[in-house]
Amino acid sequence: MRVFVTGGTGLIGSVVVAELLGHGHTVLALARSDASARAAREAGAEVLRGGLADLDVLRSGAAGADGVIHLAFANDFSSPEALARAVTEESEALAALGEELVGSDRPFVTASGTPHAPGRAATEADPVPTEGPVGGRGRAVTAVLGLAARGVRSAAVRLPRTVHHHGDGGFAGVLTGIARRTGVSGYPGDGTQRWPAVHALDAAVLFRLALEGAPAGSAWHAVADEGDAVRDIAAVIGRRLGLPVEPVPTETYGPLGPIFEADQPASSARTRQELGWRPEHPSLLEDLENIRP
């Protein structure tokens, strides 16, 4: 397939592009900057210049592709307002991409997040939240899955709280960055809350599998580690950086604080059974050993 990929030069996107190219697909990568365009070309992809706000560019990329994988997001968590702007930008982009694919039966795979299921591990059957700090993303992804009724083979790959590679990435990467700035490897609450995780290389395989064969309107969990206690994550970070490990106020994490404090394990049993996905790369706690002091 010729696949249009947004966010193709990020931590996840770069390995998704490599996975696609390695399995005989060609890639058209959206690139907002000269540096991103150069990285995409060096990886072996064609380049379409533009950003998520350039809706006509997105439509043209989708129009000339056999399938679309959406991974781009502003990742600005500096304030509730910045997060809201990022969510709105992505929602409009997803709507534009989806409308271009209506009636084509082409695959449209978007990144999502694993939901919270109180008292148990979330499954692929649980709905994503449509309220709260990132509720807008849930509403946008739900709309994408609804395109199954309009002739789009839409699917969502739900990513866990940490997608990691070489000891960096996701919420664990946020903890590492804050630890470096503050001199404390902190965690919110009592630290017993669990975060699921997956290695980026394993997540990339699932995006390819969903593109190639996921049924329309389906959701899948890219979860390798069902849930590590956050204080265990902080302990590895603290040891690698030579810093004390302590609880810190939830407010330390800004608009993500309530999410960071929640217990949110997730299962991928259905994904493994139905798509044949088998994660094989290091776990989060193993990969965090790659953090450089």
Automatic annotation (TrEMBL):
Family matches, as Pfam families: Epimerase (PF01370)
Chain intervals with Basic and acidic residues compositional bias: 271-293
Region annotation (Disordered) ranges: 106-136, 258-293
Domain NAD-dependent epimerase/dehydratase, chain residue ranges per copy: 3-213
Segments passing through the bilayer: none
Annotated protein name in UniProt: SDR family oxidoreductase
Originating species: Streptomyces tremellae
